[in-house]
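Supplementary Text 2. Reproducibility record for the structural model of the 412-residue chain.

All settings were left at their defaults, and a single model was retained for analysis rather than an ensemble. We include the record here because the model underlies the residue-level annotations in Supplementary Table 4.
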Amino acid sequence: MRRRQQLMKEVSVVLVGIGGYGNKYVEYILREGREKGVRISGVVDPYPQNSRFYDELRSLNVPMYNTLEEFYSHHTADLAIISSPIHYHCEQTCTAVRNGSHVLCEKPAAATVKEVKKMIECREKYGKIVAIGYQWSYNPAVLKLKEDILAGKFGKPVLFKTLVLWPRDTAYYRRNSWAGKLKVNNRWVLDSVAGNATAHFLHNMLFLLGEKMEESAYPESIVAELYRANDIESFDTCALKMTVRKIPVLFFATHAVKERKGPVFEYRFEKARVICNYPEYPESEENLLVVYEDGRKEIYGPTDHGSMRKLWVVVDAVRGQKEFICTLESAMAHTIAINEAHVSMKEIQDFPTELKRVEGEPPLIWVEGLKEAMERAYEEEKIFSELNLPWAKRGEEVKLENFEGLEGEITC
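Retained model, structure tokens:
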């Protein structure tokens, strides 16, 4: 082990955003960085004191800056890890590659398709790696599953669907200045239940439908239904009906329920189903389980939503080792879906006041009957308007061939 450590090229890292999810990167690098040859060369965060590891970083004399430009005026870094708010992803990724750093940027890649395309342009111009942190795309079980999908082991895909019921109280929307926002300072954010908290599960369906290991499939069309129970700009509940590679792909997610459930999903093929978190199959709890037509079952492994494998994979890629990473092109599939959803339903619908309930401290706002409606929609493979629910409103169909993305300022 000592000999291997001596041969490893040290990778210097600048951490951009060390509060919120950024705490996890700090934790893992402080805990395992020395063994894995990773050194923190600086931190960029206007409020570093909000990090759980602020005092420890100070004791290690890690330099701290308000902006990435300030950092690069004094230092260099092999890798920039960007965990900042969504509306800074494009700008900071481009700044990092211009200054010679590879990038690991948290999901989503950016708020808009135009921003992701700008990030791709910068990556190509400066010849750097830009990886996006959809951790399921680094998961060994998911990657093995995709290899077998591409090899035709399960036959052709027939239908993919996912259900996620994740309650979030009002403190969730007060945790920062951009939570639940569509825009901040005229920059698109598009923070929502599908755009952020459950983005992994939407992206995973598109990733597994990609025709190569490194590719995701882009939605050919989408009809969205977007709703909110909370007092926010964006949506906390959605039903998305997409066509991807000519098959139906359904995504249901909400924060406006009392009970947590999911992600529950079924990826249906000609010869098998891939399922997760189905009560009738106990071995599918937090596991990818394949159920074949003849009743055989095969466990591919845990989904491991909290994994930080992506960090060490990207570190090895920076060292020049051939490692699989989630690319900007792959991540853009999710951004396309979210942008299309907002175009499909330009006016987010408020749930009827008489259906909203408030309880707990901090208060949780939930919608009477929504859990049952979402479970029914998932089972019947229909969106809410197709179930004739009185509060449901169908969005317009948006097709990728005519889709230019959202209009707005590109600052990166």
